[in-house]
Structures are given as C-alpha cells and as structure tokens.
Write a structure and sequence with these properties.
By secondary structure, this protein is mainly β. The protein has one domain (54-82, 111-116, 126-308). Helix content is 1%, strand content 52%. Strands 2, 3, 8, 9, 10, 11, 16, 17, 18 and 21 form a ten-stranded antiparallel beta sheet that branches. A hairpin with a 3-residue loop joins strand 8 and strand 9. It is elongated and about 85 Å long.
C-alpha cells in the first residue's frame, strides 16, 4: 500500500491544569476567577517517506490578497508520483491551550438575580517536523503568528414583578476561528484559513498587487494539477462577532389541584444581529469566497406554555 504505520508510534495524551479562586465580595455577591491550561503530547504526524527535501524547488508567489511574497515549493516530476505515507508521531510537535475565566453571581434585593462572566482562550500548535515536504513548514509555528484570543461574554438576569410576573434577559457575545476552504467555524481548534488554488495555467490579474507581473504565469514550474497556496497564517481569521440579546416574560397561574401554568413570551435575537459564522468558501478568487452560508437566525418571537403539577 501507500501508507504504513510506524511500529514505534505512541498514543497521544494530554495533561490538564487548572486553578481557581472564589470570593464573596459582599453578602450575596460572589466572584470567581479560573485559569486552565492544556498540553498535548505525542501528536500524530504523516509524512511522505518516498520523497526528500531535495525533490523540491522553491518558487516565490505574490499573494493576490495583499501583495505579499510567499515561498512555496514545486516537487520534481520524478518524485511527484512517489508516495509512501508514514503515520508516526511529531518528535517536536507541541499543542497547547490557555483559558481564563471571570464570573460573578449576585442575588439582588427583591429576589432579582444577575450573573455572568467573561472568558478568553487561545489554542496554538507547532508542527514543524515534516522531514520531506517543505510546503508543510509554511506557518508551521503558530506561536509566531497572530493567533487571536477568543473573548466570550455572557450575562443573564431575572427580576420578579408585581402580580406574579417574571422578566428575564440574557446576552452573549462570542466569535469563532474559521477553518479550511469551506470556512467552517470552530470555537476551539486552530485550523487553516484563506488559500489560493492555482494550476499550471493560472496567471496574475491585470491589477495584481505587489511585485507581480500582470498576465504572467503564477508558477510556470508547477508539476501538480493544482496547489492551494495558504495566504494567511492558519487560525488567524475569525467569524463575525455574534451578539445575541434575548428577553422573556411570563406569569404563573394556579389552576387548582396543585397544578400551575405559565404562559411565556420570549424574544430571541432582539438586536436582530445577522452575524455570519460559516462561509461557503475560503478559496480566494472564487465566486463563493467569503460568502456567508450560515448566519444568526433573525429576530424571533415565541409564545410558550409551562405546566407543573
């Protein structure tokens, strides 16, 4: 076959650390701070043992996104069809996550309540161990990239009103990191991002940016049918910030024999935010590039009923 498993391959594992502090600031008002750290070890890696770095020739490509120069590598015709993928462990691979969390909880006069918090987390990886294909070393060290911290905010509260009426509200604000050419959002991983799919016949546009020659072939020596040039460091692109505000109001009624009912009116996405968090494609230059495929559902009014007995 074209794939083999390294007999010395180890099972990956992770170590999790956490420390927290909780304190009552005032009567019925408490705050908490937590820190979490995760390290992953013996990360999996696949490389093509039938090739070597001498089979690759560097070529400079000018990004159509911002005019920056990116070095990619063309594999030789002789080595292009040689495939022997070895599944093993990355000897120097690293992946870690850091997360900070602040939360509060307040019991207010009149049986009102307010709670919420702010959290920040970031995952970064170093995957610079491929011994044969230098294309896999571009942006391989995410500690050198501007991988953002993801900040999430959540607030919620409720207030009882006269005549048995209860009013509540919640607010959340968050965003995702975009991954892959499909633009799928994910809150925890650090995947790829915008790329430029080129072929041996791809030419620079007439209005190309940077040190390019309009109309010239992008990579005259390209030996494969197509190649995805990463235009940005992976894990540095995010979705729109999703900000959702919800309200609800309800009232309990006693209907006899220990039974109660509560008609409830809920307004979802009161701000009518249309934030996009999935995109049809992250393939630069295509008609679907950066086109939203999933957005936050628009403002919705729902009438519900709870029954307890």
């Amino acid at each position: 076959g074209t794939s083999v498993l390294d007999p010395n391959r180890k099972r990956g594992y992770s170590i999790h650390y956490g420390v927290g502090l909780q304190h009552e600031l005032f009567p019925r008002v408490s705050v908490a701070f937590n820190y979490f750290h995760t390290d992953l070890y013996d990360l999996p890696m696949t490389y093509n043992a039938a090739q070597s770095t001498s089979d690759y020739t560097p070529v400079q490509v000018v990004s159509p996104k911002d005019g920056s120069v990116i070095t990619i590598y063309n594999v030789s015709n002789a080595a292009r069809t040689r495939v022997l993928n070895v599944l093993t462990n990355a000897p120097n691979g690293e992946k870690s996550n850091n997360a900070l969390e602040f939360a509060f909880n307040a019991r207010l006069p009149g049986r009102a309540a307010l709670f919420g918090g702010v959290s920040r987390d970031r995952t970064r990886q170093i995957a610079c161990d491929d011994p044969t294909n230098p294309n896999n070393l571009l942006y391989c060290d995410q500690t050198s990239s501007s991988v953002p911290w993801l900040t999430n905010i959540k607030l919620a509260g409720s207030v009882p009103l006269p005549f048995g009426i209860s009013v509540g509200a919640s607010f959340q604000s968050y965003r995702y990191i975009l991954s892959g050419t499909g633009g799928t959002a994910t809150p925890t991983t650090v995947p790829g991002g915008t790329s430029w799919l080129i072929t041996p016949s791809t030419r620079y546009a007439a209005n190309c940016l940077g040190p390019c020659t309009p109309g010239a072939l992008v990579d005259p020596g390209l030996t494969v049918a197509q190649f995805a040039v990463p235009l940005v460091p992976p894990g540095t692109e995010t979705s729109d910030r999703i900000q959702q505000l919800d309200f609800n109001v309800g009232k309990w009624f006693n209907v006899g024999k220990g039974a109660r009912i509560q008609p409830e009116l809920t307004l979802f996405n009161a701000l009518n935010s249309l934030a996009a968090y999935n995109f049809r494609s992250l393939s630069f230059g295509t008609s679907s590039y950066s086109q939203p495929s999933t957005i936050l559902p628009p403002r919705i009014l729902r009438l519900g009923l709870q029954v307890k007995w």
